[in-house]
Amino acid sequence: MSERKRRSIFDLIDEYFENLEESVRRLRESLLEKPSWDRKACTIEPLRDISVSPTEVIVTVDLPYTEENTIRVKPVGRDAIEISAKMKRKISFNDFGITHYKGEFQTFHCQTRIPVPVYMDKMEVRFKRGILEIRLPRKHEYEIPIE
Amino acid sequence: MDEVKIIEKKEIPEDCIMLFGFPDVGLVGVIAASHLISELNNLEEVAYVDSKLLPPLIVLHEGLPHSPIRIFGNHDILLAVSETAIPADVIYPIMYALIDWGKSKNVKMMISLSGIPIQERQDVEELKIFAAASNPAVLKTVQDLGIEILKEGYMVGPQAIMLQRCANIGLPAITLLAQCFFNYPDPEAAAEVLKGLTKITGLKVDVSKLLEKGEEIRLKARDVMRRTQQELSKMKKTQEYDMPLYIT
User: Strand order of the sheet with strand A37-38?
Assistant: First the structure.
């Protein structure tokens, strides 16, 4: 008779986070396998990053060449934000030395999902060194009592 | 190490300093290498990496195929640069092949140009540079030049492999790191790392154009940065933020 090995809570937590990391990696890869531009909409998808601290969610977006007064950040439902910004000048494929595609872009556009509940109405936004920083305070809807 | 071949196109000068500019945090090394190639007019492609370990990818320049990993050179320096993110699982064989090839060409020193990510980077006006070396004598030389030493911690990526391999085979080597963004191309950090390179080698590089064209470079480097982020995650790059367990 085979003896089933008991696993500690730490093993289970480790496994949970490894699986979660793998899922995020797969999701990231699937999102990556498409162009970072949309020729029809004349938009470019900016690089972005998201971090979750105990008190807030911080989204940063790399927006080089951006006119600061054109930056728009708007909530999409309760768990996503949409970011758009106009560039100081039109960028064409030609600027990258690419001649086999035609098209011009003047807008950055992206949508980002916020992984935990936040107060959208308390969003703080600042723009420095071409980096847009969006801070969203976390909403702690309930707490698990510790006995 | 037949799985990675270095194909020589020109006669390779001996006693050079070999530099590495590979995709990593902030693309510091690649941006710095690219600036060196455009700034030092006499750097030409002298060799390239040929390996089936790499993805089935070529880089087209003027309609002609090129390896994504190439070595440029003049009489004083050899510069290995990659135009695409290197898959995390082939970094070891690629770096070993390049370093062993460099040793066979009697390279006198290897220097890897890269970055060290910092949080709230957009608020930092003056970026610091740090160095680590393959042996105590080289470390002292760097320290005497006023470059801060990266004393403790983890290093992940091609520059880590370079340092370790060079230490093993007795080749003087330095990894030069500028504070930078983790996930965004950072031309300012590339300029800082080049200033550090000037201190160490005496190689004069004007970084003013690099800073002027900063925004344009950030825009152009976006896709390479995206692919690099993916490989950084696979090689667990965030381990560089970890606090080490000191074993003495």
Answer: A37-38, A43-44, A104-113, A80-92, A72-75
